[in-house]
Amino acid sequence: MEQGPITAADVAAALELSSPAVRRHLDALLADGEADVRDAPRRGPRGRGRPPRQYLLTDAGRARFGHGYDDLAVAALRYLAEHGGPDAVEGFAQSRVEELLGDGIATVTAAHGADARVEALADVLTARGYAAQARSAGTGPGGHGVQLCQHHCPVAHVAAEFPALCEAETHAFAELLGTHVQRLATIARGDSACTTHVPLDPPEIRRSTTTTTIPRGRQPE
């Protein structure tokens, strides 16, 4: 869960079990529709043979992690939307994410540096049941940054009908990290993880920024 799509060999190493034993369990999950399998993306030149296979949970598999109150939550939000309108739903979503982060806000803001704050936020979310991790995104279309990946979402089925839950979460991340963030994928839309891109200054810019001296009496423009 914490690594998202994962190979049988990686599961075996993490759990200190034999690969055949792990594959038997994975085959059972596949047969029950609780897991799916796909070829791992290739890195580097194409080699011989079939690429390793990666396993990931389906909606049915995620249900094991606690969706027992989904129907009740959806019904409650439908009632709220009908009688209070979209603003009421958005207000609820904002209140929920504030409660979710709770005292974790102080933990994140105390971290030094943008990348450290993302790591701290991932730790807070993991403690709340979101199996989150921060991954370096390198330099790409979104620029240099970090991807915050949440491999579990307790409200995914509810958020599929009420995306305001995802939007409030994204907005809270942006405010907490002090930068614009971009939500690239969500479990609610059928992706394997909720992925948020957090832009960072390239290393060379950060180095030059830390060595810049501002003359006394002048303020940065």
TrEMBL record:
It comes from the Bacteria. Residues 35-54, 195-221 are annotated as: Disordered. This is Transcriptional regulator. It comes from Pseudonocardia petroleophila. The lineage of its organism: Bacteria, Bacillati, Actinomycetota, Actinomycetes, Pseudonocardiales.
